[in-house]
Design the sequence.
């Protein structure tokens, strides 16, 4: 347990990113896929904040934009899920196999 | 031979369905629920918070009062009726006694009639007070309950002084009253009238112009006059919809003929109007009390009624205006000392039918408000 | 060690700033105990005050004037059977009350009871409190969902929608106050202590600043905070007459008491925010009109004297008790309670204590006013319906908050501008 | 005030974050997944605090944990199907997906391993914690004004989009 450097944060961020990617690529439940995307965004945020400690405030500012983006994405995504569920009564992505229903 | 094609499996209406339509929630309200006023059970079908339909399940308080009536002599059954609408026991007794009197073709002497009217009107005020308190509590106002019960106590004291009982009074007998009024009865009633009117203003101060109260009750549970008549709704609920129908005026019994009072009616038939009508009714009751207590004649209090009551073969239906609506008794006599059939038309039971009409499309919170505004007593609904 | 212990006492900063972990721990323990005690007292006071509003007596049996009733209730709740519904999600069901209680308690970390009487002075204090209160919502959702029952589910859905909606109005009102802190110097602050000191520097409480504006922002916050804590007339999530008990319908015993504890400490927490942001926190009232050392002395005596007055009330009550054997224990108990209060009052009158504790007294007194308002609302108002509640939140409070924010900014900027012009002219 | 026991907090928070993140993608029940995600978010907020970014940490909790996740939970409760719990949770391409993700992970680790010398180990003391919020505010409303306005526009569009999507009838 030495001193904690930026590298440590990068490893954590990478781990979160990969976990998020695995979630997106393997899960069927679209809500959980959205949550995995949130994980990926958070990994990005952690990177940004970790680097902002080195190179100035811009990283933090950008991470706030990322959070804003995540909010917008979640709102629209969940809206789509509700619309999807209303029509197909399922939340599984691989059942969303019709372009129009 | 062409057969009609069953298209129901296609679910053609599914485009109009919401996501919650597909998972409609069925909510079981009661029989143990704080605001179903006893043991009413309402099964609600909900879309989110919106009510799609209701079904009342009653009978949790069924005690077979009508059947008991067939196995008791006429005077013996008299105390039982008090247990139906237990917050307005005096009215129940009045209705039963009058019906048997009609069967016997006797009439209570004038003094008895005045005593009956005074006690019945006091009982109407007491019943409306219980309604006001519980209804306000359902809508979330805690305090009116305690105010109403505090003032109801004065009425119960008069009852207690008169006949020894507070709730299930058994005050009247077939043919009149059994107890002469106690000393200072008139004084007590006069005092009560003076005491109660300011209190009524106090209730109104708390609620009538309270913004939350108004938004919670206006346009909630609207009942159109034609619906009321179709459903057989009576009492304040009917009058709040604008139908001027009060049995005390329409077919006067006892000494209501001599009394000068008005029938308050509402315009919109919503919960707020029902509240205003009941408040106005309390004021009218005080008016009746003031007149009756001044005009109370002296004389006998019991008509000549045979020791053993054996009405002639026949049937009679008679109804009075109980606090909650038309309370009717239908008695078939086979000439013996016991009724062959006794049927009660309780106002709460009939009014409860309107629940579904009133709450469709409203929210869960409105169901509670509407159950409160119907002023049902489960003892009467289930009998 | 001992020296660093003692050296803090002479410092004029919070333990967090001084870096004294020992004192910080002491403060945390004191605050947790204090909040628990306040919740117990609040329980008794709510029942008594509500009872007196409703022409009844309230608890009278356990202890003199029911003083021990909350303790008896707590004991009852502790030894009650612990029921977890068969189909409940056990882990979530178990953790929901913990989450709610923890968030409610952690909030007090940044509440400044006085200049030095806070655990630490966080420079994002206000945001910290907002964040924790939004985490509290999660506990409620967890409770409602994990109970696997309809009433709690509806209750928690209502609750989450309500709290998320009102948080917006609340945030806007808070931004107004934060904006006001920046007026003379140009640099505002989010620190709770900083906000009070800004009010001290500007010689006014923010509720009176720019007269209707500060007051309006305060009103928006005062309404939103009631909704935020699920209290009457916005107590829909636990609307007794509709949803039995809302999200905690399936809870009983100790878990239920945790919800109770959390609800009341959340009330205390939001009241503390309101007091800090608008009512001058620990600053004594009438600092402008009744200034000077004489008045300072007089005001510093108020805490002790008010305790003495309460003690006198207790003694009077003990004297007025019926002189019968059965009531002797009660009269003695009330007398003893009075003696305790009198002792506290005397301690508070001592000059060294007086100076240091006065801040806490004023803060607590202001919070107590809010607590009384909570009880008063509960005794007076019926309950809103859900759609009406949402209408109030989105169509009244939100535009009002936005308008006040914009107006405050404009007025503040104009003042700045005017001051700049004056400087140039001179 | 000097930080206390930094490594302990760092490892504790990051392990919590990663364990919760694994729970997010493995839990059968969507509510559990969402609650685990909240755990991750709160742990990350702790990490931000350790990085002297208190404002981002607060925003993370207020917006993410308190706002977005409540929205998630809300939707999960609305579309929660019991049948969903009994279905297969992973799609048919899960092996491919897993391999691809792990390849990406390998790549990232490779990059970190190769490039670890380029990061300075010591932190610059240029960012005082106390003024963090002010500085972010100044940056947001100064240099990044346009981006900020575009973000607000994005939120508006998202709001309209969400309403259009979720409304029963328009």
Sequence:
């Amino acid at each position: 347990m030495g001193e904690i450097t930026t590298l440590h944060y990068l490893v954590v961020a990478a781990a979160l990113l990969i976990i998020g990617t695995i979630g997106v690529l393997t899960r069927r439940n679209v809500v959980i896929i959205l949550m995995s995307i949130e994980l990926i965004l958070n990994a990005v945020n952690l990177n940004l904040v970790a680097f902002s400690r080195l190179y100035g405030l811009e990283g933090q500012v950008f991470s706030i934009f990322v959070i804003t983006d995540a909010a917008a994405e979640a709102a629209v995504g969940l809206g789509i899920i509700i619309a999807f569920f209303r029509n197909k009564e399922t939340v599984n992505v691989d059942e969303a196999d019709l372009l129009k229903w | 031979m062409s057969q009609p094609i069953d298209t129901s499996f296609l679910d053609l209406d599914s485009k109009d369905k919401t996501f919650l339509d597909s998972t409609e929630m069925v909510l079981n309200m009661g029989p143990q629920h704080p605001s179903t006023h006893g043991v009413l059970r309402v099964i609600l079908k909900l879309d989110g918070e919106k009510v799609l339909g209701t079904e009342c399940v009653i009978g949790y308080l069924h005690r077979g009062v009508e059947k008991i009536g067939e196995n008791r002599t006429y005077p013996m059954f008299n105390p039982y009726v008090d247990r139906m609408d237990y917050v307005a026991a005096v009215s129940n007794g009045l209705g039963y006694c009058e019906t048997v009197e009609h069967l016997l073709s006797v009439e209570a002497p004038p003094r008895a009639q005045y005593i009956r009217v005074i006690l019945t009107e006091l009982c109407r005020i007491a019943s409306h007070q219980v309604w006001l308190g519980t209804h306000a509590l359902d809508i979330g106002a805690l305090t009116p309950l305690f105010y109403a019960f505090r003032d109801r106590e004065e009425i119960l004291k008069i009852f207690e002084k008169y006949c020894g009982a507070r709730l299930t009074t058994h005050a009247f007998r077939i043919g009149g009253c059994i107890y002469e009024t106690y000393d200072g009865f008139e004084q007590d009633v006069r005092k009560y009238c003076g005491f109660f009117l300011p209190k009524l203003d106090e209730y109104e101060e708390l609620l009538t112009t309270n913004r939350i109260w108004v938004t919670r009750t206006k346009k909630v549970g609207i009942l159109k006059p034609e619906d009321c008549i179709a459903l057989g709704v009576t009492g304040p609920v009917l009058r709040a919809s604008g139908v001027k129908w009060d049995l005390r005026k329409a077919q006067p019994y006892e000494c209501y003929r001599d009394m000068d009072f008005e029938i308050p009616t509402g315009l919109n038939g919503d919960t707020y109007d029902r509240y205003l009508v009941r408040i106005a009714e309390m004021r009218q009751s005080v008016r009746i009390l003031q007149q009756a207590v001044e005009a109370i004649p002296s004389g006998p209090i019991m008509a000549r009624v045979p020791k053993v009551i054996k009405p002639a073969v026949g049937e009679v239906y008679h109804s009075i205006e109980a606090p909650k609506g038309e309370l009717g008794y239908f008695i078939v006599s086979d000439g013996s000392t016991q009724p062959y059939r006794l049927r009660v038309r309780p106002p709460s039971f009939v009014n409860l039918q309107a629940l579904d009409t009133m709450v469709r499309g409203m929210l869960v919170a409105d169901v509670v408000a509407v159950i409160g505004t119907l002023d049902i007593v489960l003892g009467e609904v289930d009998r | 060690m001992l020296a660093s212990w003692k050296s803090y006492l002479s410092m004029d900063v919070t333990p967090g700033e001084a870096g004294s972990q020992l004192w910080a721990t002491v403060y945390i323990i004191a605050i947790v105990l204090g909040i628990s005690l306040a919740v117990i007292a609040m329980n008794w006071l709510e029942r008594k005050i509500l009872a007196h509003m409703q022409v009844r007596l309230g608890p009278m049996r356990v202890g003199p004037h029911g003083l021990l009733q909350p303790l008896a209730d707590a004991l009852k709740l502790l030894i009650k059977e612990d029921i977890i519904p068969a189909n409940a999600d056990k882990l979530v069901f178990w953790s929901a009350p913990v989450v709610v209680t923890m968030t409610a308690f952690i909030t007090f970390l940044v509440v400044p009871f006085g200049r030095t009487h806070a655990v630490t002075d966080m420079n994002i204090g206000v945001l910290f409190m907002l964040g924790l209160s939004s985490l509290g919502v999660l506990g409620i959702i967890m409770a409602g969902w994990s109970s696997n029952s309809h009433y709690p589910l509806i209750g928690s859905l209502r609750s989450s929608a309500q709290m998320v909606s009102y948080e917006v109005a609340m945030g806007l009102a808070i931004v107004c106050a934060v904006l006001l802190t920046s007026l003379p110097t140009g640099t505002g602050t989010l620190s709770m202590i900083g906000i009070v000191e800004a009010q001290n520097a500007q010689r006014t409480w923010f509720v009176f600043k720019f007269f209707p504006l500060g007051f309006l922002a305060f009103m928006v916050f005062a309404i939103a905070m009631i909704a935020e804590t699920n209290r009457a007339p916005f107590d829909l999530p636990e609307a007794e007459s509709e949803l039995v008990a809302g999200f905690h319908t399936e809870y009983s015993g100790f878990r239920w008491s945790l919800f109770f504890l959390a609800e009341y400490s959340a009330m205390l927490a939001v009241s503390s925010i309101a007091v800090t942001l608008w009512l001058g926190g620990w600053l004594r009232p009438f600092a402008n009109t009744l200034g000077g050392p004489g008045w300072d002395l007089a005001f510093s005596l108020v805490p002790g004297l008010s305790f003495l007055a309460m003690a006198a009330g207790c003694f009077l009550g003990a004297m007025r008790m019926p002189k019968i054997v059965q009531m002797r224990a009660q009269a003695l108990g009330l007398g003893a309670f009075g003696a305790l209060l009198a002792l506290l009052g005397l301690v508070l009158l001592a000059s060294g204590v007086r100076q240091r504790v006065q801040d806490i007294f004023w803060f607590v007194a202001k919070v107590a006013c809010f607590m009384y308002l909570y009880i008063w609302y509960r005794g007076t108002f019926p309950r809103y319906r859900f759609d009406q509640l949402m209408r109030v939140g989105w169509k009244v409070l939100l535009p009002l908050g936005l308008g006040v924010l914009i107006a405050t900014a404009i007025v503040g900027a104009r003042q700045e501008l005017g001051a700049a012009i004056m400087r140039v002219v001179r | 005030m000097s930080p206390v026991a930094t490594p302990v907090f760092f490892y504790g928070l990051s392990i919590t974050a990663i364990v919760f993140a694994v729970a997010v993608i493995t839990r059968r029940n969507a509510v559990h997944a969402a609650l685990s995600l909240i755990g991750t978010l709160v742990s990350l907020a702790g990490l931000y605090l350790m990085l002297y970014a208190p404002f981002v940490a607060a925003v993370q909790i207020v917006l993410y944990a308190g706002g977005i996740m409540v929205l998630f939970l809300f939707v999960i409760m609305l579309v929660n199907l019991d049948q969903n719990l009994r279905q297969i949770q992973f799609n048919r391409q899960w092996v491919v997906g897993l391999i691809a993700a792990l390849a990406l992970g390998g790549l990232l680790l490779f990059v970190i391993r190769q490039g670890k010398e380029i990061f300075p180990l010591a932190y610059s003391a240029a960012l005082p914690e106390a003024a963090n919020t002010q500085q972010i505010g100044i940056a947001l409303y100064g240099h990044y004004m346009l981006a900020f306005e575009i973000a607000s526009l994005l939120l508006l569009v998202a709001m309209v989009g969400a309403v259009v999507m979720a409304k029963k009838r328009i």
Q: What stands out?
A: Residues 30 and 76 of chain D are 7 Å apart (CA to CA).
